[in-house]
Structures are given as structure tokens and as C-alpha cells.
Amino acid sequence: SGNYYNQGEIRRKELEQSCFLLGIPASDVTVIDHRDLPDNPAVEWDTQLLATLVLKHIEAKNINLVVTFDAGGVSGHANHVSLYAALRYKYCCLEIFILFLCLGCHVLVLESVNLFRKYISILDIPISCLLPGDALFILTEEETEQAKRAMRCHRSQLLWFRHVYLLFSRYMVVNSLRLL
């Protein structure tokens, strides 16, 4: 629920506002507040518990595409890495893999890049285009501005380094993904 600094309710509202700017209605936003899944950048979540919750959500919402972090979690955040581990866990179990196929659900993972590439903004586009991958998303200037407005909704998290991220991160412009 984003309650690391006891700001769970504030962060939930910020998330809903951000999603609204991206065209996602609040009814499609699910916030999980589970005592065994604390918002803490140093805590790895229980893989099986998280995988079960994610699968239930996929089934309940009839989701056909999941986009998540890769094993690096883009920033190394333990909670981000846990999401990848949970999806990989469920996706690699044969019966769940068959269920994913029956649901028609695919999983794309966002590529973590080194610090240099992470902060060269649009200069990473040629590099990303040359490297192999399953999907490459390059945002238009308008889409980039929309993404920045959505990020700015998360006021409680906008520390100095996130302002640097907004200005220079390649993830605000280009995202490379691969199928799990």
C-alpha cells in the first residue's frame, strides 16, 4: 500500500490521481495492504504468497498482459525484484504456465539497464534499437510529458533524485521489454 513512511493513504490517492492522468479509472486500480507484504525497499516479499495474489488478480480482472520488473527491479528495490520473482515462480510452474496460456496472459519484463544508460534519456534510443528484445516502446514528446505529469502526482515520493530521474531517465522516453 506504499506505507513505508506511514503514508499509505496519501500514496494510494497519489496513485489514483496518476492513473487518472494516464486514462486508468480508479475502479481498475487495486491496492493491496497485506501485513506480509510490507512496503520496504529492503524487504523481499514471500514469492509464493505474492504469486498467488497476482494470479488471483489476473483471473478476477481477465488480464491478458502483465508488465513487470526484471530480476534487477530497474533500481534494485527489493519489492520490485519480488514482483519479478513471483511472476517467474508462477509462470515457470507447469500447471500455472498452462493456466496463463489458457487465460491468454503474457508477461513482459522491463529491462534494467546500467546507470550510464539509465540517465542518458533520448540518447539511449539508438542503443535500445540495436539491442535484441521482444518489445520496444519509444514515447512521443506528448506521451513523455503525460508520463512526467503522472509521475509528479506522486508528490510524497518526489525526492531530489526522482527529479533527476524525471529529467534524464531513459525510462521516461524509451522502454525495452522481453517476454518472460
TrEMBL record:
Xref: InterPro entries: GlcNAc_PI_deacetylase-related, LmbE-like_dom_sf
Any single Pfam family the record assigns to this protein: PIG-L
Residues forming coiled coils: none
Keywords, sorted A to Z: Membrane, Transmembrane, Transmembrane helix
EC number(s) recorded for this UniProt protein: 3.5.1.89
Group of enzyme by EC: hydrolase
Membrane-spanning intervals of the chain: 92-113
GO MF annotation terms: N-acetylglucosaminylphosphatidylinositol deacetylase activity
GO cellular component term of the entry, any: membrane
GO biological process, one term: GPI anchor biosynthetic process
Stated family: Belongs to the PIGL family.
UniProt protein name: N-acetylglucosaminylphosphatidylinositol deacetylase
Annotated organism of origin: Nyctiprogne leucopyga
